[in-house]
Amino acid sequence: MLLRGQSILRVLTLFATVVTLSSCATWYQRSQQFQASVTAGDFGQAQKIIEKSKKESKGKNRFLYFANAGWLNRMTGDADTSNYWLNQADLYVEDYQKNLGAEALALVINPNVKPYAPEDPEKVMVNFYKALNFAEEGNMEAALVEARRVNIRLQELNDKYKKKKNRYSNDAFAHLLMGLLYEASNDHNNAFIAYRNALEVYDSLYTPQFGIKAPLQLKQDLLRSAWLNGFNDELQHLEKKLNTSYEHQPLGDNGQVVFIWENGFGPVKDEWSINFSVIRGSGGMVTFQSSELGISFPFFLTDLGSGSSSLTDLDFIRVAFPQYLIRKPLYSTATLQNSKSTARLEKVQDISHLLVKSLRDRMVREMANSLLRLAAKKSLEAVARDQDKTLGFLFSIFNALTEQADTRNWQTLPAEIFYTRMVLPAGKQTLLFTASDKNGQSQTQSIKVNIRKGRTTFVSFRSLESGFPSPVPASMQ
Asked: For 422, phi and psi rounded to 5 degrees?
């Protein structure tokens, strides 16, 4: 006899679906208190929260603990402690190996049981922050060590993706940063090479894939390094190629500031899923229902026989995949000003765009892993159902409830990075940094710097204002 018709089965189906969906809290939701504190600029509260979760430093999410602790101490001005935690993150990346036991467990539960494998851009950003910490302290030798390690990591990325489709096979901003550090250390030959590499990556990769053109400041930096090296033929070639000219201006008694602006917060990972409830009816009727998609379609399988339906004839199928949600920065442009001149900051990195397309490039692999996990779960369920229909039914619920995508990611990264260079008189200077939104509303911050004759001073500033997580816009697809 049917279980009071299809109505009761639909209620049970809906109940199971609701339970399944409510159990799938993302990493962003689980770390909401920390995210709210850092977004509001309450770093003291964020520090308390991260201290309470120190056990994470030995668990499967330890990279994220290390990276967040490194970033947080950087924001509070403690560069030494920041680099300690960033070093831990760096060592984790170097030593990361797949755990075969965790991999097997992930096949029957979900990928969240595995140690977190950082995204490629996240790996590079660890070295970026370490280099910037050292540069801001004036320790160019240590900063260059990190710059060289960035170069090694980029070479590893190139080797990794030689035969695979992946748009993040190189990093233009990383090359640009190396050039800035080399030039600040008076290593003009390596600065020229790094600037030239950066220009090539902007032209060949960043412009077509991410819509970021080579900054005008980079072109001037490249021309200046060619002049300083005495590469006269190369200088003429570049002037013609870039459709510009270069006139060298000696620093004299002046110094320089390289100003780096980190804007907003990068994306957060969410999940999307396909959920079906399968109802096996009498006479070979099978009904697939998805309350999420709002569809229901029946069909007949003649080999099911003509038995009656019961609760144990319910079957739940759920497969989940990761996706990014964007936190759009409030500000879109910025300037740096002193009493005599104004410099416009230019975008050099779009981390949100980069992460979105990196995930999309490997989505085929993500789908394959998710379907492999589904197949493994359904195989175990089939074995259980053959032995006991009730046990098989419980397996079906368990499989649906535990199916989740890996939504972990480094969520304190900026959405975008901009930079400019300004020549200033030696001594203590007060600069005005002004960030503006698309409606013309702006915010100005006074920034004090100490400029040394003939030297380069690195300064960075972070704007925290961002919108709530929202779907990826078409421009990033």
From this structure: -140, 135
